Amino acid sequence: MDVAHPIPAVLLAGACAAAGRPSAGAELIRAGENALRRLHRLPPPRAPLPALDPFVRLPDRIDAAGLDEPHRRRLRARLAELRTAWRELALAARDPRVVHGDAWSGNLAVTATTAHLLDFERTALGPVEWDLTTTAVGHHTFGTVPPETYAAFCAAYGAHVTESPAYPLLRDLRELRLTCYALQQSGTDPRHRPEARYRLACLLGEHGSRPWGWTPLD
Q: Where do the domains of the chain lie?
């Protein structure tokens, strides 16, 4: 966390996991009901937060990826398309709220009764849909979040992000970030190369429609 952008103390209270973690489904439901909803209802803090930047590190990761130049050019073109769509949608200027920025299950401390968010490095002011898109991608792109678990998550939070006009853009941004991360990891761990190549091929339209059955990196 950047100390120039302190997070309200209520977000940090109890941010250590109790011994034992419930099932992944229960974690997602509690995250929606207790952590994300509570975070998104906070007023902007007096200490200023930066604006959400969904493109952070993407150019560097594309440049560093072990790709041939045709694939690298296609990723750069995709990045440019998404930047244009982000500007045109002007989503960041619409009722910005405190968002976690990297809200996935690895950044949750879960007890028997609640969940607390961890790792506020990417916390910013932006659209709450950004945080909700992570779980939606887990369901619609990875296929690892079962339908009943995803439905419970949406009910607990009180909204379905896929109904937002911004969802296709936010989904595409998340998928590009996840693909670039896999490419980065595959450079140091050969085990991840098949998954990185598969994700890239999905983005380039070589594997039909979602869900694509992406495998989370360990």
A: 9-203
